[in-house]
Give the backbone structure.
Amino acid sequence: MAKRVFFSFHYEDVKAFRANVVRNHWLTKPNRESAGFFDASVWETAKNTGPDAVKRLINAGLKNTSVTVVLVGSETYDRRWVRYEIVKSMQRGNGLFGIHINGIKDRYKQTKTYGPDPFEHLAVTYSQDGTALTLSEWKNGGWHKYLDATGYSLKAQRPRDQWGNTYQLSKWYSVYDWAGNDGYNNFASWIDSHSQD
């Protein structure tokens, strides 16, 4: 059965066409079941929208989704709202993974150097009893408390060897390569393998 997918991406990658190659690839499949998802993305809002309104928009976009896919371009790792989408996806229990999209040719048939892994730029620190976490982000050459969302209690206690420790999200979340890993044919299986339901 097809999953409802939330796509997280930097708006510049939409203008460069690459993000839409992934988001719309189902159009060339027999049906959405073949593609493996329903698109539930939130487009980046106008620059003059306040942060609270953007958060409400993202939170609403995440409702009824089970998987979040981060489309990784050149600057995705450093985008404020991509980081928020990742954090809120974790909190709601969505399956979560990334896809490098810079290997996709743009409208001028050009590719780009792959961008940094956004999961390496966010981290969690587990409480001393493994029942909650706090969040940090890599900014300006160092780790800082993540301010756009608070830490939260976990549904299940972490293993004892993780209590009190800090981990970058890349420890748990994979990033595929749309061009190199044949995303067109493998996307549905990636969705299935990361789905939490």
Notes: Residues 99 and 176 are 5 Å apart (CA to CA). Residues 43-47 have pLDDT under 50 and may be disordered. The domain at 3-116+173-194 is CATH 3.40.50.10140 (Rossmann fold). Residues 80-92 form the longest helix (13 residues).
